[in-house]
Every structure is written in C-alpha cells, then in structure tokens.
Design brief:
By secondary structure, the protein is α/β, with parallel strands linked by helices. The protein has 60 helices and 24 strands. Strand 20, helix 49 and strand 21 form a beta-alpha-beta unit. It comes from Haplochromis burtoni.
Length: 1280
C-alpha cells in the first residue's frame, strides 16, 4: 500500500542497508535496469565482475543512486514488478517461541515496497523481465509445445469423423468429485440397492450426478498437488490437455513452466538419469542458456507444474524424487491414474484427490448436439446408449458411428459396441488401424475369457466379475476395479465393466462361441428370474452378421457362425411368438418387455435379415400390433425395417395409444407404402402427432390421406388446441374427420375448440364405431353432425356475437345440415329447447333477443309455433321474409298469431312452382277473414297492413292472388272486400294475366275495383268466343294491351289478336259501341311483343275482316298503318294477293325481306304486282336454302321479262332497281344466278339484256364459280 511521500532517491538511500542484505536474483534486476536504459552494458558487466553477491548488490545500488531520482524511481518499479523473485518470501505469522522477537525485528522489504507512492500511470508498463531472457524464451517454447500437444490430442479424435461431418471438438465439462472415494465397506450396500432397481433406473445410475464441481482452471490455480483418478476412457487425459491449453493461452508475464508426460508413450522416462535429462531430453530442451534455465527451474520450483498422465507405477528414480519433493520441492505435481493404480499410502499426504466421473446428463446432450446435430435423438432416445455416453471415449465412438456416411442410417446398436470394443483395443494397444484385425486374433483367448466371465456374471445378475482369470492390460481396459473390504485386515479387488451393457455385449459374444447354450437362454428369457437375459439376444443377432465392422470372424470360425445363423432366427421367433399374448400382464415397471413384438422387431433389425422379417410377418398374418408402446427413434427404425421387407402384402399396423418422437416418425413415414391404410390408423397417427410436444411433420401426414386430419370426439382439450394450431399453419384448407368409438354420444365441448380453425377447413365428416349397422350408423351420424353444428353455432353466439353470421356462413358448407343463414335463428331456438341441449338458456336469451331486423324463414321445414316463441322474445316488431310455406291448416292458424309481432311480410320465392306462395297467402287471408267473423278479431286488417304488393316476390303473379281472393269471396260468401280494399288496390301498374287459366269475368270484377286504369300483359289466352266477349268488356279499364306468349307458342299472340279485332268489329256493328276504336288505340305495332310477327298479324287480320263481310273500317286504319319499316314475310305460307292488298293500304313504299318463297307461277306473277309498293327487296335464308333463293330470283326475273314483252310494262326495269347484288344474302352464289339468268335468256330468246344491264354489272369483285357444273361459254358471255 502506498503510504509515503518521500522521493525515490531518499526512499532508496534510507533502505540501502536492507536492500544490500535482502535482495535476491540480482541478475533479474540488472536485466531490467539494462533494458530500461538505467545501466549500460559495461556497467552491468562491471557489477557482475564483483566477487560476492553482497558486493554486487552494493555496487548496483551505488550506481543507481548516483544517477539520481529517475534512476531510483525505475529501480523501485522493477523491485515492485518482480518482488515475487527479487524479495524474500513473505513469512507466516511468527510462532510464540524464542526466535519470535528476532523475526519481528527483521526488516520487511515486501511491506517497504508497498508503502512507496508510485505515480498514477495512464498505461501500466508490464514489460518487465521476471528472469533471464533465455528463461522467457524457453517459456514460449513450452507454451508453443503445449498448444501443439493439445491440438494433436483433439485432432486425433476429429480424424475419426468423415469429411464435412467433422465437428469442432474441444473440452466438454466433466464431473470432478473432490470428496473422498467411497469406503470399500459401502460398495456391497450400493450394489445391493442397485440390483433392486428397474433396468432403466439401474442404467441411469452410471451417469454421475450433476452438482457444483471444480473446473480445470481452478485446478490449475491451486498450489497443491493433484491426483486425478478415474476409470479408463473417463476423460482424465482430456482434462490434463485442457489444463495444458489453459496455461499456454494464459496472458501473464510471470515466468512459470509446465511439463506434460504421457507415461504410456514415454517408456524412456525410466532411463532418465537426472532432472535435466527428464525435462530437456524427454520433453523439450531450450535453444540457449540451458544452465540458466535449469537453474531458474530449480531455484523457483514453485513456478513449475509437471503432469504425469497415466502413471501406473513409480519405477523411474527421477520421477520418484520429484514426487518426494527432493528435486523440485515446491513444484506442483498433477498425476492421472486408474483406480487400481492408485497407491493411497504414497499419494494421500501430499495430493488432493479428484475423481473424474465423466459426463453428466446435460453434458452428454451438449456433446451429442455438437457432434451429431439433429441425429442426437437417435442416441438420446435409448437409455442404454445415453448412459453409455457418460464415458467420453464411448460418447466419441457413438458420435463417430452415427455420423458415418458409410454406415446405414441409423446404424444398429450392436455396431456401436463393436466399434467401441475395437477402438478400446486399438487405443490401449497402440495398434494401427490396418493391423487391428490381426491384433484381435492374437488376443482371441483373452477376449473369450473376458466374455465367459461376463456371461457367468450376467446369469447371476451381478456386475462383479468373480471368475476373471485374464490379466491382459488391453482386455482390462474395459473394466474398473472395485475394492471390497471382506474383513478388518482384508480388502480384495474385483472388477466390473465400465457399463453394464458392455458386459451384456461380451456375454452375447460368449454365447455365440457356445451355441448349444442359446436355446436354454431363449427359454430363460421367458421366466421371471432370468428375463434379463433377453438383452443378450439383439447383440447376438448382429454379431451373426458378416458385414463390417467385423469382430466375430476374428474370434470364431466362419462356418461355426453360419451353422448357428441357419437355425437361430426361426428358433428365436418360434420361441417368443406364442407368448406375445401374455406380455401385457407380465410387464412391470422396469422389468423390461419379456417377449414383446417390438423387442422381436429390434432383434430382426439388428440382424439385417430380410428372410427373418418375412418369416415373422407371415407368422403374424401381416398384422403388427404396437398399441400402447412408446416408440423412440431406434424402435421406429426397427419397425420400419421389418415392414419394408414385406414386398407382396400390405401390413395392418395398430398404433393405438402409441407415443412416437418426431425423429422416430421420420423413420415410419418411409415404410407407409407397405402399410394398409385405414381410418383407424389415420386417427391413431393424428392423435399421437397432436399429443406430442415435438415439432412433428404434419404436412407429410396430411399428404398420406388426401389432406385429411382425424380427431376423436372424446379427445382432450390439449389435442384440439394443437389441432387448431396445425390447421391454421397449413398452406391449404384441411379436411377434418371426427370419430367416436363407443355407444355414448360424443362430447362436443372439445370440438368447439375448432371454431377458430373453421375458416381453414375444407370439409367436416364423422366416423362412428365400425360395429354399428349401416342404418344405425348413418342415422346417428346425421344426428351427431347436426348436433355438433348447433353447438358450434351456439358457442359462436355466446362468445362471438357480432361475428355470428360470418361464423355460420363458414360452417354451413362444411356440414350436411338442412338449414341456411335465413333459418338458423329458429333452428338454434328449437335445438336449445330440445332434450339434446345441455346448456343454460338464460345465457343465450340476449342472443335470441338480438335477431336481425329482417327475418328470412322457411315455414315448410319447421313448426310455426317456434317462430311465434322467438318473435315474442323480440323487443320490437320484425320484418319477415318467407322463403317457404306450409299449407297445413294448423300451421296457417299459428302463423296468424305471429302477425302482431311482424312489421312487414314478404315472400322470397325459391320454388319451381311460384303458385305455392299465392296459395299460402290466399289461405292466410281466408283464414284471417274466417277468424275475424268467428272471433271478432281484426286479424284481416292486420294482415292487410303488413302484406303489400311491394313485398310480394313474383310481382307478375300478384294479379293471380287478387283473382283467387275474389273467387274465394264468391265461394264462401265472406265479406272480405272492405278489409282487403288496400290489398286489392295495391296492384301493380302492369298486370300479367293468363286468360287460359282464368275466368275473364273475375278479371273484369277485380279491374273495376282499381282506382285507375292498368296496363295489361297477357301471358296466355283463350280462344273461346264467350271469353273473348268478356275480355272486350275489360278494355275500358286497360290503358295498353300487350302479349307475352310462351316461347313454344309464339303464333298464339297473332291468332288471339286477330280474333279479338274481329270480335270487336262484330260487336261494334251489332251494338254501335266504339270497341274497335278503343282496341285499336291500345294495340299497335309498338306494343306488340314479337314485332317480327306483326306483318303476319295484318295479313291474317285482313282476310278475316273480309270473310265477315266487313270492310276495313276507319278505326282499323291506324292498326294497318303502324307497320315496321322493314317487312319480314314468308311467301310459302301466305297468299301474295293478300300481301298486295295490305301493301296498297300503306302510306309509303316498304322494304321487304323474304324469309321464304313460292315457286307457283301465279304467285310469282302476283308478286310482280307488289313491286310498285316495294322500295327494296332482300332475302334472309340459310346456306342450305341458297339454291332455292337463286331459283326464285331466276323465275322472278324471267316472269318479269315475259310480262314486259306481253304487256309492255317496265316490270323488268322495276325489278332490277329493287333487287341488286348487295341485297342478296349469300353473295357467293350471285355469279350462279347471273349465269342461270343469261342461259334462260338465250334459251327463250327473250331480249332482256338491256333491261338487266344493271343487274349483270352489279357482280362482285371476286367471282366464285364451279366449272364442273357450268358451261365456260356462258361464263364468257356474262364476263363480257
């Protein structure tokens, strides 16, 4: 602590005597003074030339003091930075003895330097030498060597991995126990307690308990010697290399040294004669200043750390002296050894014992994650493998095997053990990989001896190898020693495998050497006492396989193995299969499965024998029942392997109540093409997927079954919540299948969780128990679907009121229910009041009171009484739209009771026969009238107030309703007209009436009730004379008359109007009434529906009038003159003479379009007389009739030419003026027409060419001619 304000010069002067006597390692001070420029090289040499150390220290201080304040200050800094080497060590508190006063009076240089007040420096200079330069250089050499050794150690582990799969291996934390080892007397108790545990729990005892432990850096910092004890492969060497790395990478300016000796590799150490040879010859020697370095190491042994890794004995005299603190008394020694090499008497006093226990469970997971990534689950899912990994050497081989691209993925469990055995033998024998097989053969007897001991101990349910006779170090590397105190003065050493499953592996190996014992072991597996022996069988199955990695062929002759293999698997299956039915009752926690089918599958997977798999499946009738099992990745892999061996038949797979990991499911997906797909399997898969906490591959599962997701209706809440999450994440809409498996109705409370997912659902279907009859099955399905639909709607009503109709709109397409958005309100009310509903109605009352302003209801599908009850709940009257109706008398009367709660009644017709609405409304009005007369209620008036023409759906049949009502009044004698006055007077402006279905007299009476004239639109007519006369009486009440005939009978309109005009003319002549004028005023071409038939009407009307002996009266003139600009006439159906007379009545010439023609000669002559009244002539014809058009035109032109020669009339010129090329419909045959016409003139000798000049010259620019049908000479003349 700085506590003085003296100058550096004064401070050094006052302490000069103490510094002369107390300074150590003056060479360090001189090196630093020279480096800082305080003393030159010559001055340093002069000081070193002094005879005694005291003279050297005195001369140094005198020289520094002479140089003044700055030099003294630098000297103080050097002493402060190097005090550990240049000042005597701090003394412990003095004991109460005679020398206490002397020690107390001694000057404390450590305290003295701490009291000087150094200046505060922005950047502390740490570049001070702690010893000779050669020592610092040697330290760098040691650190470089340490890094190299550490890298080589981890590189050796990395080399086991292949190519891109090489992980970044480094030290993983180990459990380091500083407590004293377990007392030998306690071992028996521990073993006894362990033997009572179940197999999984027993195996987990191998994993050391996770607890706060000391770290490698803390071990490095302690000054005490350390003894690292641990079984083979447990990580002792990895720990020392980690300490070596930490020291090499430590940023410190202290001068210290660390040496590492692998006692298994450096056999020459025994021959080391002295410390110098041990350190510099057998480890790493300095390039320069060897003596100075050795001197520094010996003088400052407290700065030295030596690691003896793998110490088995102390045969080296130099090592013995180091351990006894004779050569380097203050050096820190770190020793690693196996428990059986631990000499407690030699080490106990000077060493802190640390037991290396291997990886904890968390470290195992971390290590596997770093080395295997996602493949770690292949190991973690097996309790045998994961507990095996507590030994780092085994964990390394586990990672290597599962990451190997050459091995099948995943490799079998037995292959892991084969690789572990081969690796341990290679490591402990220092044998090269290519010579390992030969080495195994040389150790055949020793290995089989160990295998026999393993078998005998396994049979006796013990891990103690009491019958072990082998003492080979390579073989013993699989074991750990156990000290058992038999008496006060006697402790015996026995051995156990590092892991119990390694013992089982060696036991299986011995059985294959002695195949006559195998059948006995099979039978033992079926007993309670020896059921543990079944764990040897999977090992035997793989060891019989000849593929790499190999082991057995180096220990047992190949032919012996083949002989065993020939009967082994059939014997295995035939022994275990009869007992499969008894397995469930026999299983207890941890006892293992005696002969479960899953265990047999694992055995066959280990064997990799397709023949054995097919033999098993055939015995099982290709039905694999795995219900209730927990399938980790390895068992899944085993099942997938067995299933895929079935090439001819599909496997029936039962996965009821199975638990499968995501990794395991990946394995099963690959075998489903060999599995017989069914609804039950799909449901089982979805249930286990949704319950799993892992991220399962739902997309692949959906693709297996047409995008269907299967759910049990009795499922747990968690199941449905997960299902909703899955459905919402899928890229396409999902089909949902709901199941129940018993007679009790399914619980819909969980199904309601699906509400959030319905926008993402494409369809919903139900599946019931397969035991039900077809009739019961479908009846129950329909009822349950409707019930679920109602429950879902009610849940939406309770929890999502504002969005209720959107939810219903989503649900309707998914359920085969007979309802819609319009009727859902009443259906829900009916359901709530039924026995099926188990909820509380009061909670739903606000929902039913929030009915929409306009109700759409189909009364044909529900009781009107339900509507009445719901309407009573409403706070105000509602508009009602009827989309369907009932004609039952009771339903009609019930509906009348609803009227006080209805503000307006309308119809929305959805029926193919719209007359149903008329019938219902007629019945309703009649029932209301009857009720009024019987009870005196004003029901009819109320009905009239809510029912108007505007609310009627098909307004064109409103008139039919009025006519029906009027008929009902005449039929019953009820006086309903006053009450229905508003109804009758709310008729439309245009009345649509079918006179073929109505009495015209009724129409007349209803029209009289109208406040104003109406437009009449006839949709059908009657040709009865009496009806015609009655209709004439309706004309005063009609403003305009039109016809809307049926599409199949367009001519009916023409006939009806002709008859109507004739009847009107006859009536007018008989009575003098102006009926004809009235009819003519409201019936014209403009009001005629099919205007193309108007000309037919006139042509039909004219002869009819003449037949009656009537002339065309003036009132009819307006009718005949209201013709279209273009007339369309079919001359094949008409007398041309009639056309001529009608054309004469026209005020101007008309364009005439012929749709048909006649080839009669007299008709042609008559048509020529029509030409003066025609402005233009054209044709409308089809391609098939084109030749007929040409013929007609030819005949017409010839007749005109003949008439012109006979009478001199200019008919030909007139015909040419109205008929040109542009008017002909099919211009491509105009050329044929000209050639036919020319030929006719040549044949008859008529000179018509001058008159036809304009016709011939109106030919098209492009001519179409068939020379096979024409004379080319005629073409020539026409072309001229």
């Amino acid at each position: 602590m700085a506590c003085t304000s003296q100058s550096a010069l004064d401070y050094v002067k006052h302490a000069k005597p103490h510094l002369i006597s107390g300074l150590k390692d003056l060479s360090v001070i001189l090196e630093n003074l020279n480096q800082k420029g305080v003393l030159g090289d010559e001055e340093v040499s002069n000081i070193k030339a002094e005879k005694t150390d005291e003279d050297k220290r005195r001369t140094t201080l005198i020289s520094v003091i002479k140089k003044g304040e700055a030099a003294c200050y630098e000297l103080l800094k050097i002493i402060d930075r190097t005090r550990k080497r240049t000042l005597e060590k701090l003394l412990l508190p003095p004991e109460k003895n005679s020398d206490a006063s002397t020690e107390k009076n001694k000057f404390d240089l450590h305290h003295w330097i701490s009291c000087f007040s150094f200046k505060e420096e922005t950047q502390v200079d740490t570049n001070y030498l702690q010893g000779p330069r050669s020592c610092h250089k040697y330290q760098e050499m040691l650190k470089s060597n340490a890094k190299e050794k550490s890298n080589e150690f981890w590189a050796a582990s990395k080399n086991w991995f292949e190519g891109n799969k090489t992980p970044d291996l480094s030290y993983s934390s180990l459990i380091l126990d500083t407590e004293q080892s377990v007392c030998p007397s306690k071992i028996k108790k521990l073993k006894k307690r362990k033997s009572k545990l179940s197999r999984p729990k027993k195996l987990r005892t191998y994993i050391p308990e996770e607890k706060p432990t000391i770290s490698p850096s803390e071990l490095l910092k302690t000054d005490k010697n350390i003894l690292l004890v641990g079984k083979p492969g447990i990580g002792k060497t990895a720990l020392t290399h980690e300490m070596l790395r930490l020291w090499a990478e430590r940023e410190s300016k202290e001068l210290d040294y660390m040496f590492y000796f692998d006692m298994r590799e450096t056999a020459q150490i025994v021959n080391a004669k002295n410390l110098e040879e041990l350190l510099f010859s057998f480890y790493c020697g300095p390039d320069e200043g060897k003596d100075a370095v050795l001197q520094d190491i010996q003088s400052h042994s407290d700065n030295v750390t030596i690691i003896f890794d793998g110490l088995t004995d102390i045969s080296s005299p130099v090592v013995t002296k180091i351990l006894k603190n004779k050569l380097l008394p203050l050096a820190k020694i770190i020793i690693t050894c196996r428990p059986d090499d631990e000499d407690t008497k030699f080490f106990s006093g000077n060493f802190d014992r640390v037991e290396v226990k291997g990886f904890s469970e968390q470290t195992i997971k971390t290590y596997l994650s770093a080395t295997l990534g996602e493949d770690q689950t292949k190991v973690l899912s097996s309790v045998e493998l994961v507990t095996l990994c507590h030994v780092p050497m085994y964990a390394l081989m586990m990672a290597v095997c599962f990451s190997s691209k050459d091995a099948p993925q995943p490799c079998t469990i037995t292959e892991i053990y084969i690789n572990i055995v081969r690796y341990c033998l290679q490591i402990n024998s220092r044998t090269k990989n290519q010579k390992l097989n030969f080495f195994i053969k040389t150790k055949r007897e020793e290995i089989l001896s160990l295998a026999e001991a393993a078998f005998l101990s396994t049979q006796q349910k013990t891990v103690n190898l009491t019958d072990l006779t082998c003492d080979d170090s390579c073989v013993l590397s699989f074991l750990k020693p156990l000290l058992i105190k038999e008496a006060v003065t006697e402790t015996i050493t026995t051995y156990a495998f590092l892991h119990y499953t390694v013992q089982e592996f060696f036991a299986a190996l011995w059985l294959l050497k002695n195949p006559d014992k195998i059948r006995d072991v099979f039978q033992q597996c079926l007993t309670e006492e020896k059921k543990h022996m079944k764990h040897l069988i999977p090992f035997m199955c793989r060891l019989l396989n000849e593929k790499s990695p190999s082991l057995m062929k180096h220990l047992i002759p190949d032919q012996d193995l083949k002989n065993t293999s020939n009967w082994f698997f059939k014997e295995l299956i035939n022994t275990f299969l009869p007992h499969l039915c008894e397995q469930e009752a026999a299983d207890t926690e941890g006892s293992g499965l005696h002969v479960h089918i899953l265990f047999v599958c694992q055995c066959l997977y280990e064997s990799q024998s397709p023949e054995a798999c097919v033999y098993l499946l055939d015995k099982l009738d290709y039905h694999l029942d795995l219900s209730g099992d927990s399938l980790d990745p390895y068992p899944c892999c085993a099942v997938a392997y067995v299933v895929t061996q079935s090439k001819e038949r599909k496997i029936r797979l039962n996965l009821e109540d199975v638990i499968i990991s995501e990794q395991g499911m990946r394995q099963l997906f690959g075998c489903f093409e060999n599995v017989q797909w069914s609804d039950s399997l799909a449901r089982q898969l979805w249930e286990l997927f949704l319950i799993s906490e892992e991220q399962m591959d739902f997309v692949t599962l959906l693709s297996l079954d047409g995008n269907h997701l299967h759910l049990p209706t009795q499922g747990e809440k968690q199941l449905y919540e997960r299902a909703v999450e899955v459905i919402q994440r899928m890229p396409t809409k999902v089909n949902v299948c709901l199941y129940w498996d018993n007679e009790t109705p399914p619980c819909h409370s969980q199904c309601e969780s699906l509400l959030k997912a319905f926008p993402f659902i494409s369809s919903v279907s139900f599946r019931g128990p397969v035991s039900w009859s077809q009739e019961k099955y479908h009846g129950t399905l329909e009822r349950e679907q409707k019930r679920l639909f109602m429950d879902l709607c009610l849940k939406a009503a309770l929890h999502d009121g504002p969005n209720f109709y959107n939810v219903v709109k989503t649900l309707l397409p998914l359920f085969p229910v007979k309802t819609d958005l319009d009727n859902i309100f009443l259906d829900l009310f009916q359901y709530v009041n039924s026995k099926e509903f188990l909820g509380d109605f009061q909670g739903l009352r606000p929902f039913f009171q929030s009915a929409p302003a306009v109700w759409s209801i189909n009364l044909s599908e529900r009781k009107t009484s339900i509507l009445l009850e719901v309407l009573k709940l409403q706070p105000e009257k509602k508009q009602v739209e009827l989309t369907g109706c009932s004609h039952e008398e009771s339903e009609v009367r019930s509906f009348l009771q609803c009227l006080p709660y209805i503000s307006q009644l309308r119809f929305i017709s959805r029926l193919s026969d719209p007359s149903e609405e008329i019938r219902f409304l007629g019945n309703l009005i009649c029932a209301a009238a009857e009720r009024d007369q019987q009870a005196g209620e004003k029901i009819l008036e109320l009905l009239s107030s809510v029912c108007r023409y505007k609310g009627f759906p098909l307004k064109d049949i409103w008139c039919d309703l009025l006519l029906d009502l009027y008929c009902y009044k005449n039929k019953t004698g009820l006086s309903v007209l006053p009450s229905l006055q508003s109804v009758f007077q709310s008729a439309p402006a245009v009345w649509s009436i079918n006179l073929s279905e109505r009495k015209t007299s009724i129409l007349l009476e209803v029209l009289k009730l109208q406040p104003e004239k109406k437009q009449g639109e006839l949709t059908g007519c009657s040709h009865e004379e009496s009806e015609m006369r009655s209709f004439l009486q309706c004309l005063p009440y009609i403003t305009e008359l039109s016809f809307k005939p049926q599409a199949s009978q367009p001519s009916e309109e023409t006939r009806f109007f002709v008859n109507l005009f004739c009847a009107a003319a006859e009536r007018e002549q008989q009575t003098g009434e102006k009926i004809l004028e009235l009819l003519s005023s409201m019936c014209s071409y403009q009001t005629f529906t099919l205007k193309q038939k108007w000309c037919d009407l006139l042509l039909d009307l004219y002869p009819s009038v003449l037949e009656m002996g009537l002339s065309v009266l003036p009132p009819l003139w307006s009718v005949f003159k209201s013709t279209p600009a273009v007339w369309s006439i079919n001359l094949s159906e008409r007398k041309t003479s009639i056309l001529l007379e009608v054309l004469k009545l026209q005020p101007e010439k008309k364009q005439l379009n012929l749709t048909g023609w006649s080839h009669e000669e007299n008709e042609g002559r008559t048509f020529l007389q029509c030409l003066p009244y025609i402005s233009q002539l054209s044709f409308s014809t089809t391609s098939s009739e084109s030749s007929e058009a040409v013929r007609f035109f030819g005949d017409l032109f010839c007749a005109a030419a003949e008439r012109e020669q006979q009478t001199g009339e200019k008919k030909l010129e007139l015909l040419s003026s109205v008929c040109t090329y542009k008017n002909l419909p099919l211009q491509e045959i105009w050329c044929d027409f000209l050639m036919d016409l020319y030929y006719y003139t040549m044949k008859t000798g008529l000179s018509v060419l001058p008159s036809l000049q304009s016709v011939f010259q109106s030919a098209p620019a492009v001519w179409f001619i068939n020379l096979s049908e024409r004379k080319t000479s005629i073409l020539l003349e026409v072309l001229k």
